[in-house]
Design brief:
The chain is α+β, with helices and mostly antiparallel strands. It is 36% helix and 22% strand. The chain contains 4 helices and 7 strands. Helix 1 packs across helix 4 (88-101). The N and C termini lie far apart (43 Å).
């Protein structure tokens, strides 16, 4: 059993990022799908003390580019209105979809993970990073 630190990086204020969490793995290998699931569960556990921050943080990290484009056409981009208390299985599914769409990238074991079912071996003492990707202006 090993504990892996998962950090989230995204543009914007640090308080709007998911918290850094420790994820306990049963062995020294896992899949991106399982790591994301466990990280989201831990992030929600950490954020439950502040429901408004929890909702804002999860929306900011996993809002898709399609959501942004659709809302941009109206002139305003807003985070979706959802119940304040996150539904854990739904948030895990949303994170899996966001990863599959390229909304965020996962870096583990010294490399970028390409697929949800890809096996990864986190390095001891090295954090896993969930990096929120955003399009550059004009591109």
């Amino acid at each position: 059993m090993i504990d892996v630190e998962v950090r989230s990086a995204a543009p914007g204020p640090p308080g709007d990022r998911p918290p850094t969490v420790l994820v306990r793995l049963d062995g020294d290998r896992t899949t991106a799908r399982e790591l994301i699931r466990r990280a989201v569960e831990e992030q929600i556990r950490e954020l439950r003390t502040d429901a408004a921050r929890s909702r804002r943080t999860l929306d900011r990290q996993y809002l898709s580019e399609d959501d942004v484009r659709t809302q941009a056409a109206t002139g305003v981009i807003r985070m979706p209105r959802q119940p304040a208390d996150p539904d854990v299985p739904e948030e895990v599914s949303r994170a899996h979809r966001a990863f599959a769409r390229g909304t965020f990238a996962v870096f583990a074991g010294g490399r970028q993970v390409a697929d949800l079912d890809e096996e990864i071996t986190p390095r001891p003492g090295e954090p896993v990073v969930f990096l929120r990707l955003v399009a550059l202006a004009g591109g």
